[in-house]
Design a protein that fits this description.
By secondary structure, the chain is mainly alpha-helical. The protein is built from 10 helices and 3 strands; from the N terminus they run ααααααβββαααα. β2 and β3 form a beta hairpin.
Length: about 300
């Protein structure tokens, strides 16, 4: 195995080893929470759905990439390429939009009681299932390109025209216009929630600043106050959004570069970096959730304790 393939395999292996157990623990912790408490709050339901999407990203894309790189099992024939890239793109975009929904809901949660925005928060909680269904339909319909154009990698001169090299597969578009149009749609699908969640995060940062000033005033007056649940949740959301903007910003920058290159790249390095950075968010985010959510952290500790018990 050449050094480049070894490095590639080890990087994706690190994401799979971190992301699959991490997201699985988060999912099990929230399911346990729902079982013992009888329900989940809207914010917890969003995080559970987000962890499920992230698990699909790292399990379907990263784990299968590792198996193929180390010649353990290769699913990347024409059908495998279509299925894997379709599931990856759908899960990836769901992860992005669910992060936005989480940031927007948390932004509404800090609205003063009785205000119009507090009423909007109640409506969002009531129709959360409809929101999830709409996100599934929208993101699934925007991810159909792999089902039409993905093929397994092989020696064919036609694959070097209007195609995107993703190592084991090619996305071979019929024309440059179709390739660029699909690429522009993917960028728009990422940039829109990025701008919206950045706005929501600014509101949360203002809330955190005011909350810290209020806490300082109480401490100076002799009162002692721990961090509120709203403050902890706001910190979690701001952290997740910061990670998203960092990792997916690099991903989209590389994607735009790929679209500006007139010929198909002979190497999959750019695509590998894109997949790595977008999957890095899916692998790291459960650690943020576990550390910042006391209930989830306790459920995770209980689950790990039962697993390690003789």
């Amino acid at each position: 195995m050449n050094p480049d393939a070894l490095t590639r395999g080890l990087l994706f292996l690190s994401l799979a080893v971190t992301g699959v157990p991490g997201n699985t623990i988060v999912i099990c912790a929230f399911l346990s929470l729902a079982y013992h408490e009888g329900r989940l709050s809207p914010a917890d339901a969003i995080v559970l759905h987000l962890a499920s999407a992230n698990l699909a990203v790292v399990a379907v894309r990263c784990l299968l990439e590792v198996l193929a790189t180390f010649s353990v099992y290769n699913v990347f024939d024409d059908t495998g390429c279509k299925a894997v890239i379709f599931i990856y793109r759908t899960s990836r975009s769901l992860s992005i939009w669910l992060t936005f929904v989480l940031s927007a809901y948390q932004c509404l949660s800090v609205a003063p009681p009785g205000s119009r925005w507090a009423g909007v928060r109640v409506l969002v909680g009531q129709y959360l299932g409809v929101i999830f269904l709409a996100l599934w339909l929208i993101n699934t319909s925007m991810s159909v390109a792999p089902l039409l154009f993905a093929v397994g990698a092989r020696n064919d001169s036609k694959l070097t025209q209007n195609a995107i090299n993703v190592e084991f597969c090619f996305l071979s578009f019929p024309s440059r216009l179709s390739r660029d149009s699909n690429g522009a749609a993917q960028v728009g699908r990422d940039v829109v929630p990025m701008a919206l969640m950045a706005t929501a995060s600014l509101v949360l940062l203002v809330f955190l600043y005011r909350n810290s000033r209020r806490a300082e005033a109480l401490r100076s007056g002799g009162a002692r106050q721990g961090p509120s649940a709203e403050r902890r949740a706001a910190v979690t959301v701001v952290t997740l959004v910061t990670l998203y903007v960092l990792f997916y910003g690099v991903d989209n920058g590389l994607w735009v570069y790929t679209l500006t290159v007139p010929q198909t790249l002979g190497s999959s390095l750019i695509s590998d970096l894109r997949i790595f950075f977008s999957s890095l968010y899916a692998a790291v985010s459960p650690l943020v959730i576990i550390v910042s959510n006391k209930k989830v952290s306790q459920r995770a500790k209980d689950a790990l304790g039962r697993c390690s018990a003789p």
